[in-house]
Amino acid sequence: MKHIRIISPAGAIDSRWIDQAKIRLEEWGFYVSVGKYAYGHLGRFAATDEERIADINVAFADPTIDIILCSRGGYGLQRIVDRIVLPKRPKEQFPLVVGF
To answer: How far is CA 11 from CA 20, 41, 87, 89, in A?
Structure first.
């Protein structure tokens, strides 16, 4: 079973959208987990820059995650993209990133 992690690396999103996506993806047979700060709201962002980058880095570091699904993209991710830490492993073992 493929493991999808939903994160919000940029703007805040209505939590119902994440919940509905999780339900639908599970109906399709995926195992779905949600990042610690995916549901957050801090002004226009989902969380602080440090919290959002932590969610990204945790997702990349977890070898059980097959797909990282970004709930939103935009300026918030642009602010932190240079702080993504990729683990040392073959590129075939990296998760597919969907979204911004």
So the answer is: 18, 8, 25, 30
Mean pLDDT of the region 39-54: 96
Q: Please give the distance of CA 65 from its chain centroid, rounded to a whole number.
A: 10
- Looking at residue 82, the DSSP 8-state letter turns out to be G
CA distances in angstroms from 74 to 92, 93, 99, 100, listed in the order given: 27, 26, 10, 7
With H, G, I as helix, E, B as strand and everything else as coil, classify residue 19: helix
Are the CB atoms for 6 and 39 separated by under 8 Å? no
8: its two tokens = 């919000």
**47 pLDDT exceeds 80?**
yes
